Amino acid sequence: MPDFSSKLLKNLRNKSGISRMSAIYYSPLICKLNSSAKPRTDDIFALVDESDGNMNYRLLLAGIGLILMVAACAPEPQLLNDNYLDDDSFITGDPCEAPCWRDITPGETSWQDARTIIEDDDSLDDLQTQSEDDTDRIGAAWAQADGDLCCQMFSSDDGETVDFLILQTAPDEELEAVFEVYNEPTYLIGETLADDQGLFSLFYPEVPMLIYAFVEGEGGELSETSEVIGFAYMTAELMQELIDTSELHAWEGFASYQDYMDGEFEVTPIPDADSEDE
User: Is residue 277 included in any domain, yes or no?
Assistant: First the structure.
């Protein structure tokens, strides 16, 4: 198998407008999260940018980082994993509607309340938290009971509230069900893990939410029956930052991976002051 971490980092730097982001902490996360041992809490902040202390959300979200990283390190890499989170709340709205997950809403729920919710949930296990060394941010990671590491949560800069959630799910739902609830996404971006494995990240800015849909590599197609393998909820501000700093395709209907990824980007990063000065 090729050096997946190097490939993904190169793609992210080239396609996601993150040249100012340091990747120094990215590689150590790659295989630790999916080793036979439980992940250590000192890995939770592996996606933090050392150069300016900012959470590297674009590596995690636009690059579909956590989902691909964890899957890439398995002996037989698999994006379709029945041991991930058993959850269809993003469709049913039970017990609360997106972007709320199990009564945790980014931008609203306090970090302490969110932690208590996860700790008290018998279907979840192995909650680990870590405070970032130089800031008040907090990260958390956990698994489904008797399952694999599936989920991460990060706080706001001051550590007071939840900023975003990213959850990997068992492939029990299809895009058709998502479209019945939320209609079509606004943007999307794809990435591959292997010849027969890839996924699209579908952007719903109005929620705000990302839906991760499986495709069979570069030769695959996005369709109504594509399996949903994860979702992410975040604050509206973070969603806007993600859009402003990413290269994205506008939604043009169901199509093949290559049809989308070989086309021109309709959304390109907005230059920041630092990049304009270079």
Answer: no
Cα angle 106, 107, 109; round to 5: 70
SS3 81: coil
- Percent pLDDT > 70 in the chain is 70
In a domain, 274, yes or no: no
The pLDDT score that the predictor gives to residue 149 is: 84
Is 278 a domain residue? no
Dihedral sign for Cα 272, 9, 86, 154, please: negative
Query: d(Cα 31, Cα 12) in Å, to the nearest integer?
Result: 18
> How far apart, in whole angstroms, are the C-alpha atoms of residue 270 and residue 220?
31
CA 159 to chain centre: 20
> pTM for this one?
0.80
- In the block, which residue shows the tokens 């068992």? 170
What pLDDT score does 175 carry?
A: 98
- The answer as to whether 129 is a domain residue is yes
- Give me the number of domains the chain comprises: 1
